[in-house]
Every structure is written in C-alpha cells, then in structure tokens.
Amino acid sequence: MTIETTTAEQTDPLKSVADAMKDAVNQATEDAARAKERISQMGPEIAHSTSRFAYTTSYMISYGIVYAAVFVAKSVPQENPVVEGFIDGGRAALDAVNEAKGIKPDGGNSMPA
Fold first, then answer.
1. CA distance 4 to 69
2. Pick from 111, 61, 66, 70: nearest CA to 91
3. Could you read off the pLDDT of 1-56 as tens digits, one per residue?
4. How many domains does the chain have?
5. Residues 83 and 54 placed together within one structural domain of the fold
6. Longest C-alpha distance within the chain, in Å?
7. How many CB atoms lie within 10 A of CB 95?
8. Predicted TM-score (pTM) of this structure
9. CA distance to 10, 12, 23, 47, 76, per residue, from 19 (Å)
10. Do 70 and 46 sit in the same domain of this protein?
11. What is the C-alpha end-to-end distance of the chain, expressed in Å?
C-alpha cells in the first residue's frame, strides 16, 4: 500500500498545481519588492522633473504674456486718450492695492511717468 500511495502522490495533478501557485505567489512577492525599491529610488527624480516642467511652463507663459503686453503698449502712440486711460487706470489700481495693504499714498506718483 505504501507503493500505491507514493505513486498516487507523485502523479497527483493538484499537488503540481499547488506548487505552481506557490511559486507564482513567491515570484510576485519578489517582483513587488523590486518594483517598490525602484519606485523609491526614482521618486526624487520624478519630483525634480515635474518641478522643472512646472517652472519652465510657468516661465514661458508669463514671458509670453508680458512680452506681448509690452509690445502692444510700446506700439500704441503715447499722446492719446486710450494710453492716458491705461496710465490713470494703472495708477488707480496701484493706489487701491496700497490702500488695501495699509500703505500710505505717495502723493499721486505711484507709477513712474
């Protein structure tokens, strides 16, 4: 009976499936540990790349807006009602900001002429 039992255990298909499942679980655990280690090593690099991308994008957008605004402002003739309105509006906006911050007005010369 020992020979039959041993032969039955050796040819048991469920044992081979169980062994394969055990090996798969062990391999998956090892792979997960390796992936976690790689991610922890790459974390600072990803953060730096994301930060650099955000900085460069913000810089390019602000440069484009300011450059376009200065170009338009310099291309408009200085002695006309539109430019005088822009100047007066800019001074009023600066005065309002200074008032909100509690800064005393400097005699109406808040913007250089």
1. 93
2. 111
3. 455 555 555 567 778 778 888 888 888 888 888 888 887 777 788 888 889 999 99
4. 2
5. no
6. 114
7. 16
8. 0.40
9. 12, 11, 6, 42, 82
10. yes
11. 110
